[in-house]
Amino acid sequence: MTIESMKAASFNDALFEDWQKKAAASLKGRPIESLYTHTYEDITLKPLYTKDDLPDGSAEALPGTPDYRRGIDPLGYQSESWNIANRLFYKDLQDLKAKMDSALSKGQTAISFVVKSDLFRDQQALAELFASYRNDYPLSLNAGWLQTPLLAALSMACKQAGDSSNVAGFVAADPVAEASLNGGLPKEEKAFFADWAKVLEEADQQWPQLKTVLANTVPYHDCGANAVQELAAGISTGVYLLQQLLDQGWELKKALSKFVFHFAIGSNFFMETAKLRAARILWSKIAEAYGAESGDQKMVLSAETSRYTKTIFDPYVNMLRTGNEAFAAVLGGVQYLHTGSFEEAAGTVSAFSERVARNTQLVLKSEAHLEKVADPAGGSWYIESLTNELAEKAWELFLELDDRGGIYEALKSGWLQEQIAKTADAREQDIFKRKKSIIGTNVYANLSEAVSQPEVQDRKSQYFGGTLVESVRMIESEDSLLKRFEDIEQSFAPLESKRLSQPFEQLRFRAIGLEKIGKRPVVGLICLDQLKNHKPRADFISGLLSAGGIHTLRSDEIHNVQQALDFINESNAEQFVICGDQTSYNSFGPELALEIKKESDVKLYLAGIPEEKESEWNTAGIQDFLHVRSNAYQSLSSILQEMEVGTNAKA
Questions:
Q1: Which DSSP helix (H) or strand (E) runs through 481?
Q2: Paired strand residues for 171
Q3: What are the DSSP calls for 527-565, one per residue?
């Protein structure tokens, strides 16, 4: 072919129907519906998306224009990159100061740390900490119930420096999120928000650019909520808090300027990117309904990588999870991002893990060049379509929350907790049955790693009452702020944060507990016939049992009952799994199990589901059939319980 003919060549239009025919041929009789995926958000993901999947005109939106799905700035991160805002963990203020100096010198771009009451043991030192950085870096602080004393310390820092004009970022709180975790507000609803609005008004007078209102969806995410529930909860919280400020006489423009929305980013990459894009659409429409001008409809987004997805065992895999989640957050268009350390699930932190977490974002900035592109996810029909579906479903749920009196009423009645619990249970069942994998935990577990069970943290929260002026006075007089903290009484069932891997981790710690008292958790595998016949199921069983911290001991090739009995007698196990192919099962049959039960008081399981004689296997003494559709968690828990009972009986 000549160059001229190549230039003149053309391609036929690619039609969806043509793709369907090709896909159907490759499936070899399976229905094309087998390529579709159903999500926890009740969204069906298709294997192929085209422009026809989008409403007319929705693909023409530009970054920086309403409805802001493609970002709040026309040039995206090229105008202003996202802030690396990793929360620092510390022992005391001196430790925090040293860690902050190190982090800022190595790429962190925002002041962010865990806000806890210990900070206020030395208010003057805290004020000096703020004074060290306030002019150079934005703040990224979720202050929770401690917002008032934290703002007071910031006020003292500004007074000492004689300037507060450069304070930027956010020192914000979400009373609804805090109430959801603690079972209620510290005082009567109307009185609480009247006091809170006064504190925010005082803060606004000192720092007009500082944001102080947080709509925090992390508590819902950490309980297992899906993306639609997170979006609806976040938007409903925004409306509730906005209305509280308007009821206190705030102007709409000023109230909207104080908001930051905070999301946790989970493992479903495209869903999480679309979630952030959908959030901007929803808030833009809410602000528009309140009568806000287009420039005031922008949503400032803060995000953190999910704690819900992290594991204690095989912790280095958490680096990969964090990288995936951080990538999704950046594509979604965040302004502040916290990447958690790979050790966070174990409740520990080290300089190495903090450096890896920080460098994860630096790689995305400097090596993946994501800050050089405006809306890197734009133009993907899949993401654009998913964004629309999420926005529509979240809007429906938001309206239902509104009909129930808003998010706080939905929490008080327990309705929202029930809805999230249903989603969390569906996630958990998929993990139990290993339809969804947690690498290193419910699949591919490494039994040689040494892991200590973390201590249970006291989740009881305290509230600091009072005004900003009163808090400043206490600092100036060195009158301890700590005496003003009060415990919060529950008035409704709080949300219970957890991690998806916890049930399997508890199994592993039960197994470790047995090892500590000298009872090695081991199950024998009775391997029938030749290696090629029994190996697939023996490997499957070994992997299954390792998820519960249980070791396996494999027999040599078993060809008769006596060989099986010899193996049982020589081993130190009390539970055994018969492993073989269907031919072996048909050949040996239930007679093998029956003879073993006659000669030995052991527990017997069968790998796989026999094609025939299932009832005879049960009659012969098979406790359970272990296969790919089994409830792995239930089976492992039962085996460990038998081991624990046997140990207690011997003791």
A1: none
A2: 141
A3: EBSSHHHHHHHHHHHHHHHHTTT-EEEE-S-B-SHHHHH
Count CB atoms within 10 A of the CB of residue 89. 17
Domain boundaries, the chain: 65-413+457-487, 503-650
Distance CA 64, CA 70 (A): 7
Look up the CATH number of domain 65-413+457-487.
Answer: 3.20.20.240
**Residue 523 β-bridge partners:** 552
Condensed to tens digits (0 to 9), the pLDDT of residues 601-642 reads 999 999 999 877 788 898 899 999 999 999 999 999 999 999
CA dihedral sign, ordered 72, 81, 390, 31? positive
| pTM (whole model) above 0.85 | yes
End-to-end CA distance of the chain: 85
Per-residue pLDDT tens over the stretch 439-486: 999 999 999 998 888 876 655 677 777 777 667 666 666 666 666 677
DSSP 493: P
pLDDT tens per residue, range 28-42:
888 888 999 999 999
Quick one: which of 406, 420, 496, 398 has its CA closest to 226? 420
Domain 503-650 sits in which CATH superfamily? Cobalamin-binding domain (3.40.50.280)
Q: Check: CB of residue 381 under 8 Å from CB of residue 50.
A: yes
